[in-house]
Design a protein that fits this description.
The complex is a heterodimer of chains A (111) and B (113). In chain A, strands 2, 4, 5, 9, 10 and 11 form a 6-stranded mixed sheet that branches. Chain A has a 5-stranded antiparallel sheet with strand order 1-3-8-7-6, with no helix packed on it. In chain A, a hairpin with a 6-residue loop joins strand 9 and strand 10. Helices cover 0% and strands 57% of the residues of chain A. Chain B is mainly β. In chain B, the strands form 2 sheets. In chain B, strands 2, 4, 5, 6, 9, 10 and 11 form a 7-stranded mixed sheet that branches. In chain B, strand 4 and strand 5 form a beta hairpin. The chains are: A mainly beta (111), B mainly beta (113). Chains A and B meet through strand 5 and strand 10 of A and strand 4, strand 5 and strand 10 of B.
């Protein structure tokens, strides 16, 4: 089983829709969690950290479920510019050597 | 404030050639990383430097060497390039400790023929 698993998609949704995707992780000792966004042929960029209490940044909401070992990302009122690949990242043991990236979920927003 | 910069952006090598990928950051971060990204796979850690003066192997270190030249710069060297090293290489930096939120450079697209 992969340490961090994501549905590769693609998710193809109309502009204005709400879309959500999950990421599961295998190690219950995982300490910190992130969502990154990666545009085609570009570098990953930090979208948001995921806190135990959940957190929201504008149209984006991230949740952590430690009992079921997954994190989620919800995008409301999706824009064309949200089209990208979303990478789930998990840090085991709060260590520089244990930052694990998922393979990403591809999101395409259509007009 | 340029963030993380990488050179070159593109490179084509023949099998057996060597090259060094350069990375620099101006965020005063202690930790720096080298990743490779292949189609359909997540980023895989090649080497990292938790702080100036230290380097450690990541998940896929074979065929690579690194140098943490100073706090700002972290280079990746391919001594004898192989077609399996065709990939996109990203350098990243973060504060040491805490959540390790990483900031990435624009990447180097390397093709080995």
């Amino acid at each position: 089983r992969k340490e961090v698993e994501q549905d590769p998609g693609p998710f193809n949704v109309p502009e204005g829709a709400t879309v959500a995707f999950n990421c599961t992780y295998s190690n219950s000792a995982s300490q910190s969690f992130f969502w990154y966004r990666q545009d085609c042929r570009k570098e990953p960029k930090l979208l948001m950290s995921v806190y135990s209490s959940g957190n929201e940044d504008g149209r984006f909401t991230a949740q952590l479920n430690r009992a079921s070992q997954y994190i989620s990302l919800l995008i409301r009122d999706s824009k064309l510019s949200d089209s990208a690949t979303y990478l789930c990242v998990v840090n085991l043991y709060s260590s520089a050597s244990k930052i694990i990236f998922g393979s990403g979920t591809r999101l395409s927003i259509r007009p | 404030n340029a963030g993380v910069t990488q050179t070159p952006k593109f490179q084509v090598l023949k099998t057996g050639q060597s090259m060094t990928l350069q990375c620099a950051q101006d965020m005063n971060h202690n930790s720096m990383y080298w990743y490779r990204q292949d189609p359909g796979m997540g980023l895989r850690l090649i080497y990292y430097s938790a702080s100036e003066g230290t380097t450690d192997k990541g998940e896929v270190p074979n065929g690579y060497n690194v140098s943490r030249l100073n706090k700002r710069e972290f280079s990746l060297r391919l001594e004898s390039a192989a077609p399996s090293q065709t990939s996109v290489y990203f350098c990243a930096s973060s504060e040491a400790g805490g959540n390790y939120e990483q900031y990435f450079g624009p990447g180097t697209r390397l093709t080995v023929t």
